[in-house]
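RECORD TYPE: inverse folding
INPUT: structure tokens
STRUCTURE:
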């Protein structure tokens, strides 16, 4: 029963987290860009939405890591020694997944706690001259980092399918 609960939490967390990122990229960003009267207003709106989604995303990431650790160690019986020195396609795929998850965590942290707040600070300066080139450069960095993070997250999903359904190779 605990195994099924862990799988359910793992899947729901992945759905909310990756689904949220896809919704932002495929729906919200294009609509915000078309409907805002300036790129800076669109960026402000997306920043507000991002700050609203941030706790949800980080809770999902935390649940994914915790349930993933439980599933790997309890259900699949892969210990730390196996993870760092084991052989076989399953352990190698799990090593790839763990590495990709680490990349996602770093990219998410840089996006959410470094570049995003830096862009927000640039947009919210009152009484100071606005450096449009700097804002656009920072906005571009945030956007490309988010895209890269989504691609890595989708790669995690592909490896997860391989782990549960077998290697296609």
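DESIGNED SEQUENCE:
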């Amino acid at each position: 029963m605990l195994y099924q609960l862990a799988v359910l939490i793992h899947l729901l967390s992945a759905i909310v987290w990756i689904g949220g990122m896809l919704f932002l990229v495929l729906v919200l960003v294009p609509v915000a860009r078309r409907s805002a009267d300036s790129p800076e207003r669109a960026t402000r709106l997306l920043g507000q939405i991002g700050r609203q989604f941030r706790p949800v995303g980080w809770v999902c990431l935390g649940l994914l890591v915790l349930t993933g650790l439980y599933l790997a160690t309890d259900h699949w019986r892969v210990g730390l020694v196996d993870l760092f020195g084991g052989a076989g396609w399953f352990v190698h795929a799990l090593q790839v997944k763990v590495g990709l998850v680490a990349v996602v965590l770093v990219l998410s942290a840089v996006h959410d706690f470094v570049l995003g707040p830096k862009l927000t600070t640039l947009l919210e300066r009152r009484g100071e001259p606005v450096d449009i080139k700097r804002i656009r450069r920072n906005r571009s960095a945030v956007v490309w980092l988010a895209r890269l993070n989504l691609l890595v997250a989708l790669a995690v999903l592909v490896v997860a399918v391989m782990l549960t359904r077998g290697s296609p190779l």
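NOTES: The helical segments are 2-35, 39-75, 80-85, 89-123, 132-165.
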